[in-house]
Amino acid sequence: MEKSVYRWNSDKPYRCPDCYAVAVNMEIPRWWRVYTCCKCGTRFTRWPVLARFLRDAGVQCSFHRERGTA
Questions:
Q1: Measured distance CA(24)–CA(29) in Å, rounded
Q2: How far apart are CA 38 and CA 16, in angstroms?
Q3: How far apart are CA 28 and CA 26, in angstroms?
Q4: Mind spelling out the 3-state secondary structure of 38-66?
Q5: Domain total for the chain?
Q6: Of 2, 18, 47, 57, which has the fewest Cβ atoms less than 10 A away?
Q7: If we measure between CA atoms, which residue out of 65, 60, 70 comes closest to residue 27?
Q8: What is the pTM of this model?
Q9: Bigger pLDDT: 31 vs 67
Q10: What whole-number percentage of the chain has pLDDT above 90?
Q11: Domain limits at 45?
Q12: Distance of alpha carbon 18 from alpha carbon 70, whole angstroms
């Protein structure tokens, strides 16, 4: 079963909508990608209803991606 995908906050698309951690700091958030929060694992995108068709960007937090702790 696929995990739920949430809509990002329109005023801060780089932050996780669940825990508000900065989850996308390696690029400008793109509407056609699904991001994963490095802190809580929440998946979020601009258009959650299209998540199955969008590209999964995974963890885009430079702090956790470099260390491989995500």
A1: 7
A2: 9
A3: 7
A4: CCCCCEEECCHHHHHHCEEEEEECHHHHH
A5: 1
A6: 2
A7: 60
A8: 0.82
A9: 31
A10: 56
A11: 5-67
A12: 17
